[in-house]
Write a structure and sequence with these properties.
heterodimer; A: alpha/beta; 10 helices; 26% helix; B: seven-stranded mixed β-sheet; 15 helices; globular
Chain lengths: 358, 515
């Protein structure tokens, strides 16, 4: 089964899981799939991307997402849905390929292995992932649910990057502790990739650029307050942004603030007030930093996928500029995350700075 | 503790957001701004950087040129050309704010008062738009205009930036036409800007694969032990074009392939392939190693030029089935021109690593295919066991494709399936386009950003340029000598150059790699 796509418009329709296969016959079926392929098709893979969800219906949705992610990130996708509540234990498997036309005729294809685990078989997750990896390529695990105790040490030892979205966590502190357990099991080798952090990429870029010139660093020492507008359900995103500012500018969380209020002390003991407002639909709709008489602003432009950035001061003429905004859909966030690479040390500092505020 | 926050002048909010030096807000002043380069490359590159969020919002462009234009009129022209030449679609919302940062400054290059008013204008922009006194002067004018521009910049005090700011100059090639003119050009530039302020642009170095050569060599342990004369038989560097001289006939006829391509682009690629590991990744460490390579090139005597260098010129022929005219019939080309459109040469690097490893270069116009590639041909395996009947195809070859279809390929031997022992070469091929969906930025985008960040790694230093000319000059001299001048060989457009180029390798028992 080939899902050949020539443009973005054709992507959404492709949610078929492909050919049903026996578990024992996956490798031979994959070989058959490629032996039957046209000469213009090239199999490509840079990573193993395992996607795990406990929603049985997620296979179709995730297949659609993988179809679009592989347009820019060739991988072997291992898509797994677990139905732990099912009475009967069984495993079903499918194989398919996502092909995208490059240039005029060549097609670049990524293969997808899909699994539905029911009943006790849900515990088979590590085995299924391990036995279907494209050898020598890193393993990225996209965990789409909350983590549950106990964390399987066998799995984490194999994962290179663990991708999750802390925005959906109901109990932030417990979840963070479980992630830290996974990190510990992996002997700190695992790289934690929070899509909630990725969501902030462009906003952080926009804020950071105000302070690229050394002369502007003086504003750090006179920062008075930070106001952030966030969309419904995205308080954790806004807090992560606050954590980033706090961690990087070495602010200490002020302990004796009134309930519901957030304040920091900078290295000189000055007070910095943080105001968070639930307003608008964007995860982070607006950020204002006030330093003396200067305001640094970043806000979503009316056209949606751009950020308007400005710096204003009563002594300066105000100019605004456009910068790209981070799109908030799963494909864009994953694509952005897969492009980044590297360690996320700043994320760990940011999350630690505000872990008790969530 | 936060390491970045402890470093003075480093923006702590940048940590983790970018692995490259951060470009500073600045005024980009383009001299000769009404020309092709500005419309086709510079403004589209700056727009793409802005659209990708890579350009500091405060960056401003001041176009300095002679023609009478208004800011608004010039912006309209640029919008039109950017829509045509930009690698990504131009979005009106982004263009609108980007265009507001473009200004037109009319002046003759020789008019001192034009620079005084430029200085006043730049100061005003600094105050209004936060460009912080940083200036990046881009010389997109002909080299013979550099001297008055530089003199007037100096008179207006624009070569020196206020404290805490910077002034840099980007110079486009050609960096002279021989050693003497290169030295003179360097002297002229140095009279106004120091070497640290000077960025000589060679767009080949901005290409993704050119940068990847260093990664390939110094981030992969397997190549280091075999990257020397013990294992490498020879190296080929080819830059083939199907194009003729197009509208550049006038310029090209006075330049030729040796000076247009070999002196800069090909020698730069050779440096990346042949250099020793630098002590660190700073611009000067890398350039120190590169210059050692050029300095180690064995200089040719007049007598050796005819033996080691083949020059050719295309005659009538066909490209992709379409007839094309001979070079001498091209527009603005002398009908008796002796300018070479093709060069093949054999050179040697006299250092420990490359002793007795010949480097073959081939560059030409109106060849059957457009491709720039470097191939490392390893020595053959011992002629025992499987290799008793050796052919050239039995060598392992590592190919770095610079353009188009950037990538890396390795040719190895494999047994054909079957009961007999038949061995055939197979190719392991890595294509950037296949593996990474993201389009590579244009070379000018990368290089402009580097200049704004103060990273000169991908720019040529004056000693590199001068050493390259010192190698090229004896060849040019032999070609223009009154007596015993080596011949100019003609080749039909659409062929792989004159037969004499084949002989150059044939004599050594080797062949050109077929692209």
């Amino acid at each position: 089964m080939y899902t050949v796509r020539t443009d973005m418009s054709a992507v959404a329709e492709s949610s078929s899981l492909g050919i049903p296969v026996e578990m024992a016959g996956i490798d031979s079926e994959l070989k058959k799939l490629w032996s039957q392929s046209a000469e213009s098709m090239t199999r490509a893979s840079l990573i193993n991307l395992a996607v795990y969800s406990q929603e049985p219906a997620s296979l179709q949705t995730n297949t659609q997402l993988i179809g679009r992610i592989t347009e820019n990130h060739a991988c072997r996708a291992i898509v797994i849905a677990a139905n732990c509540g099912a009475e009967k234990s069984r495993v079903q498997a499918w194989i398919s390929a996502h092909c995208h036309v490059v240039g005029t005729s060549q097609q670049i294809c990524s293969e997808q292995l899909s699994f539905l685990l029911e009943g006790d078989c849900a515990n088979l997750l590590p085995g299924i992932v391990f036995s279907h990896l494209d050898s020598d390529l890193p393993l990225y695990l996209w965990w789409q649910n909350e983590f549950k105790d106990p964390m399987d040490p066998q799995l984490w030892a194999w994962v290179d990057r663990l991708i999750y979205d802390s925005q959906m966590w109901k109990d932030f502190d417990t979840q963070l502790r479980l992630v830290e357990t996974a990190e510990c099991e992996a002997k700190q080798r695992i790289i934690l990739c929070d899509l909630n952090w990725t969501r902030l990429d462009k906003v952080r870029q926009a804020v950071a650029q105000f302070f690229d010139h050394p002369k502007s660093h003086r504003h750090f020492a006179s920062m008075e307050n930070v106001t952030i507008d966030y969309g419904a359900g995205h308080r954790s995103t806004a807090l992560l942004l606050v954590g980033w500012l706090g961690a990087q500018l070495e602010w200490q969380l002020k302990q004796d603030t009134e309930a519901g209020k957030i304040a920091f002390l900078d290295t000189n003991g000055r007070n910095i007030q943080i105001d968070l407002h639930e307003r608008g639909s964007n995860p982070v709709g607006k950020v204002l930093l006030h330093s003396g008489e200067t305001e640094f602003g970043v806000a979503h432009a009316k056209c949606g996928d751009l950020l308007e950035v400005w710096r204003s001061n009563k002594n300066e003429k105000q100019f605004s500029q456009m910068m790209p905004a981070q799109r908030n859909d799963a494909v864009s966030l994953m694509s952005q995350e897969l492009m980044r690479g590297g360690l996320h040390r700043v994320y760990l500092r940011a999350i630690n700075c505000v872990r008790h505020l969530n | 503790m936060n390491r970045v926050a402890d470093q003075p002048n480093v923006n702590p909010l940048r940590e983790g957001l970018s692995t490259r030096a951060v470009p500073q807000p600045c005024n980009v002043v383009i001299f000769g701004a009404t020309g092709d380069l500005t419309h086709r490359k510079l403004i589209p590159a700056l727009y793409n950087l802005a659209a990708d969020g890579e350009l500091p919002p405060a960056v401003t462009v001041v176009a300095f040129a002679r023609r009478d234009k208004t800011d608004e009129g010039f912006r309209k022209e640029l919008e039109e050309s950017t829509r045509k030449f930009s690698r990504q679609k131009v979005r009106s919302e982004i263009w609108k704010t980007f265009a507001e940062s473009i200004f037109y400054h009319r002046s003759e290059f020789e008019d001192e008062s034009g620079y005084e008013s430029l200085a006043t204008r730049l100061d005003k922009i600094d105050k209004e738009r936060g460009t912080r006194g940083n200036r990046l002067f881009y010389f997109a004018a002909a080299p013979d205009r550099f001297e008055p521009i530089l003199k007037n910049l100096r008179t207006a005090g624009l070569n020196n930036a206020p404290k805490g700011s910077w002034a840099r100059v980007i110079v486009e090639k050609p960096f002279g036409t021989d050693l003497a003119s290169a030295r003179e050009l360097n002297r002229i530039v140095r009279s106004s800007f120091t070497e640290e302020q000077t960025y000589r642009i060679d767009h080949f170095l901005g290409k993704e694969t050119a940068q990847n050569i260093l990664v390939l060599r110094f981030a992969n342990a397997i190549f280091s032990p075999i990257w020397n004369a013990h294992y490498i038989d020879h190296v080929q560097i080819t830059a083939a074009e199907t194009l003729g001289v197009e509208a550049r006939g006038g310029y090209y006829d006075g330049t030729g392939a040796l000076r247009d391509m070999v002196q800069n682009h090909l020698l730069q690629l050779l440096c990346l392939i042949a250099m020793e590991p630098p002590t660190d990744l700073s611009a000067n460490s890398i350039r120190d190693e590169k210059v050692k390579v050029v300095r180690s090139l064995r200089r040719m005597t007049a007598g050796e030029v005819g033996e080691k260098v083949v020059r050719g010129q295309y005659s009538d022929g066909a490209i992709n089935g379409k007839p094309v005219v001979a070079y001498r019939s091209e527009e603005r080309v002398d009908p008796n021109s002796m300018t070479e459109t093709f060069v093949a040469l054999r050179l040697n690097i006299d250092n420990w690593r490359w002793a007795d490893v010949p480097i073959y270069m081939m560059v030409g116009k109106r060849l059957p295919k457009s491709a720039t590639e470097i191939s490392i041909h390893f020595k053959k395996a011992p002629a025992v066991l499987f290799n008793k009947e050796f052919t050239a195809r039995d060598q392992n070859v590592l190919v770095v494709r610079i353009q188009p279809d950037e990538g890396i390929a390795l040719r190895i031997q494999a047994k054909l399936p079957g009961t007999s022992f038949r061995i055939e070469p197979v190719k392991m091929d890595f294509h950037y386009g296949t593996s990474f969906g993201k389009a590579s930025p244009e070379a000018y985008e990368r290089l402009l950003l580097d200049a704004m960040s103060g990273d000169a790694t991908l720019f040529a230093r004056s000693d590199e340029v001068e050493e390259a000319w010192a190698f090229i000059d004896p060849i040019e001299k032999a070609w223009t000598a009154e007596n015993d001048r080596p011949g100019l060989f003609f080749y039909p457009a659409g062929s792989w150059g004159p037969e004499e180029a084949e002989d150059l390798l044939d004599r050594d028992g080797r062949n050109w790699r077929r692209l």
